[in-house]
Amino acid sequence: MELKPTKTLSGFIELLPLQQRCFDECAARMQRVLKTAGFSHLDLPAIERAEVLTDKDNWDEIETQMFLFQKGDTKMGLRYDGTVGLSRYVAGHMNDLVFPFRAYQFARNYRGERPQRGRYREFYQMDLDIMGIDSLSENYDAEIVATLAAAYDSVAEFIGPVNVRIGNRRFWNAMFEYLNLTSEQCRSAFVLIDKKDKMDDFYDGLVETVGENAAVEINKVFSSGYRSFVGVSDALDSAIREMDEFMVLLDSMGIKNAQIDLGIMRGHAYYTGIVFEFFLDNFPELGAIGGGGRYEDLASKFSKTKIIGVGAAVGFSRLMVALMDENKIDLTPFMRPVRAAVLAMGAGQVPYAMRVVAALRANGITVVPYLDANKKFKNQIEFADKINADYSIIIGENERISEILAVKDMTAGTQQNLNLEQTINLLKTA
RNA sequence: GCGGAUGUAGCUCAGCUGGUUAGAGCGUUGGUUUGUGGUACCAAAUGUCGCCGGUUCGAAUCCGGUCAUCCGCCCCA
Question: Whose C1' is closest to the CA of A380: which nucleotide?
Fold first, then answer.
């Protein structure tokens, strides 16, 4: 009989238990930080109506980017990020939410594109957003950045320190207005600046699209700094002041590892103000490990009410999987998940062994019993060794009759006879 | 959609100037006297050498096609 394949589909991830424990611990810690900052957890459907996911009508084109399918007359698809569902949710439950509304998601998302390094077809993304109706102070932009920084900080012992670079769409809009660029030129300039770090002919490209004079000015932002544009126009002054105030606020929230970098654009998405990206100090070549920004109208597709927001997304799978693949995470804290293995030697010992197991578990001790009681002792202790149990609790006929336990320290190799209470005390103390 | 690389045991790979029964390490299972693991030794099981076709007396090995995977480009809502 032909066997079916055991490999996952291309672009899908599965972890071994050791890695999964690290993944889960980091996810839990980061979510704990967000909850402490008052963000509500949203657990939205993975499947949305196709019309919610896309405005395009050309299915052939969309299908290469998304997972879409049809049941009866209903076209639907898997969500590709957290924002679409969030927009729909907020617009649909506006009466029941309190604004400014803060929410986070930690969810799997799906993309149909061809997988590449760090780009998967199924991945976890952590989204956090603060939304207001009609208006929302820029102070929340700083809070989002500070909260995300705190979330990364909670897992710093695994991923190392991070830094955040902050850009500003409003600055560029003011700049392009000052330079009298056409909307076509603006769009090209946006793309060029976004890709600046990847290009070695950035300046030539600029000259080609916006002309030499404008190119000189734009380049000056990177060579001489944005402050050289103070006093050039009211709009530029306002944008520069906004950035300065933003940095002061970040500093007051304890964020020291932030800097202005006007090359940060976040693609050509819906952002309208501050944008930002986080990077790892120790692994900058991984690229942005999270980012976000301010958008002026989150839910215009769903509601006539103007919902303003500031949000961020963390590519959690990419971050963790890339680091683990490169052996950049020390996994030793996750190598010993089991405190004790309980070995029952002979079927007659199983009831007594299970009473011991229950008593230990009731005291919060992680215990795994080996219940193939007729297996040779060698196999049993080998099992205890392989799961890296700190202790083996050996229960044979002698132990059962005299109601004691042979407790073996698997690292030291020493063994002592203890009663149940003594065993609990030994295993509870780290 | 375009380009590069790779497909041999459960895993990582060797073999590839064509020549009988296809190799290693790891892993798995059993054993080295039956209540003591991590080390060592012995043994066993598992492959249509990705698929189709061509050249040849003979193909894992050479050629063509195809599919899959990985990497990069495009795209990234």
Answer: B37
